[in-house]
């Protein structure tokens, strides 16, 4: 990919600002309007073909009341011979999308985002994806690497934690574990964030985006606290594309050929069965 470093860095800055000034955003949650649609994805992990299919099917220019939610777009499978990974390009593409459709495109902060910011060693295929990501940025930006990394970090930190529909759906990357929910700081959704919120193990942002294997009862307690009927997350890999974790928790994945996305109306009440019936496999999309 031939790049113009100034243009890429400027685009990340533009998208960061659009995230921060989003008129639908209240604190750390995007509140979707009563009228319209939202297309929900799971983890994308630089699956470029699925992203292309999503954009082609969504037709955002022709549907101004259609919203798209994206999360965990970095850390995929595009490595060069030296082990450098190129998912900064996908991050740039979604930043461009936010700049082009600022009222329609929304993100969710995810654990791989925080790991990349902190330089934590998430391993994939025996190597650190964070180090591989850094190597890809250094390869492509050269002497502008420091400025590019700063722009990427600011962009990731501008992501909200959740998206809420008027019909009672709460969409987030993941939820805290059963053990963490009773003491979880739910004010994190309503206020400006501090460094302590991202602190390993104890920060509420960290607990939320890293939580796994929460039981249906735990998710129910979380849902009650955030005023949701059903919670939709990603984070946990799903070979079939999705998992129903009880009556109030749907987990979806978008990072492989059997991955899915969920197009729904923002103001319509859906049961869990309704949501599952509306799941679309990327493999079925002609684009």
The tally of helices reads 9
Q: Quickly count the domains.
A: 1
- N-to-C order of helices and strands: HEEEHEHEHEEHHEEHHEEEEHE
Shape: globular
Computed over alpha carbons, the radius of gyration is 18 Å
Give the low-confidence spans.
Answer: none
Supply the CATH architecture: 4-Layer Sandwich
Structural class: alpha/beta
Kindly, what is the distance between the CA atoms of the first and last residues, rounded to a whole number of angstroms? 22 Å
Largest sheet descriptor: 7 strands, mixed
- Rounded average pLDDT: 96
Helices and strands, with pairings:
Elements: H1 5-21, E1 25-26, E2 29-31, E3 37-43, H2 48-58, E4 66-71, H3 88-100, E5 105-108, H4 111-118, E6 123-124, E7 127-128, H5 129-141, H6 145-157, E8 162-164, E9 169-172, H7 204-210, H8 216-225, E10 230-233, E11 242-244, E12 249-252, E13 260-265, H9 272-278, E14 280-281
Parallel strand pairs: 2-8, 3-4, 4-5, 9-10, 10-12
Antiparallel strand pairs: 1-2, 3-13, 6-7, 8-9, 11-12, 13-14
Question: Care to describe what's here?
Answer:
This protein is α/β, with parallel strands linked by helices and 287 residues long. The protein has a single domain, classed as Purple Acid Phosphatase, chain A, domain 2. Helix content is 34%, strand content 18%. It has helices spanning 5-21, 48-58, 88-100, 111-118, 129-141, 145-157, 204-210, 216-225, 272-278, and strands at residues 25-26, 29-31, 37-43, 66-71, 105-108, 123-124, 127-128, 162-164, 169-172, 230-233, 242-244, 249-252, 260-265, 280-281. The strands form three sheets. The protein has a seven-stranded mixed beta sheet with strand order 1-2-8-9-10-12-11. Strand 8 and strand 9 (169-172) form a beta hairpin. It is globular and about 50 Å long. The mean pLDDT is 96.
């Amino acid at each position: 990919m031939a790049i113009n470093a100034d243009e890429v860095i400027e685009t990340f800055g533009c998208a960061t600002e659009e995230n921060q000034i989003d008129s639908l955003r209240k604190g750390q949650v995007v509140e979707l309007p009563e009228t319209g649609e939202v297309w929900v994805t799971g983890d994308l992990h630089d699956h470029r073909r699925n992203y292309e299919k999503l954009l082609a099917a969504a037709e955002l220019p022709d549907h101004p009341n259609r919203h798209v939610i994206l999360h965990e777009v970095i850390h995929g499978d595009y490595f060069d011979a030296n082990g450098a990974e190129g998912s900064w390009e996908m991050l740039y593409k979604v930043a461009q999308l936010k700049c082009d459709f600022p009222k329609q495109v929304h993100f969710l902060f995810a654990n791989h985002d925080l790991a990349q910011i902190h330089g934590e060693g998430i391993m994939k295929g025996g190597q650190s994806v964070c180090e591989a990501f850094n190597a890809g940025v250094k390869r492509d930006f050269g002497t502008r690497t420091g400025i590019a990394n700063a722009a990427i970090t600011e962009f990731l930190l501008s992501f909200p934690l959740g998206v809420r529909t008027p019909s009672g759906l709460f969409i987030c990357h993941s939820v805290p574990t059963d053990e963490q929910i009773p003491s979880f700081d739910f004010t994190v959704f309503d206020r400006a964030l501090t460094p302590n919120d991202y602190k390993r193990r104890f920060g509420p942002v960290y607990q939320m985006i890293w939580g796994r294997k929460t039981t249906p009862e735990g998710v129910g307690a979380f849902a009650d606290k955030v005023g949701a009927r059903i919670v939709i997350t990603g984070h946990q890999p799903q070979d079939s594309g999705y998992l129903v974790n009880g009556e109030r928790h749907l987990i979806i994945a978008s990072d492989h050929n059997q991955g899915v996305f969920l197009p729904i109306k923002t103001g319509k009440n859906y049961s869990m069965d309704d949501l599952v019936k509306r799941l679309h496999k990327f493999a079925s999309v002609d684009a």
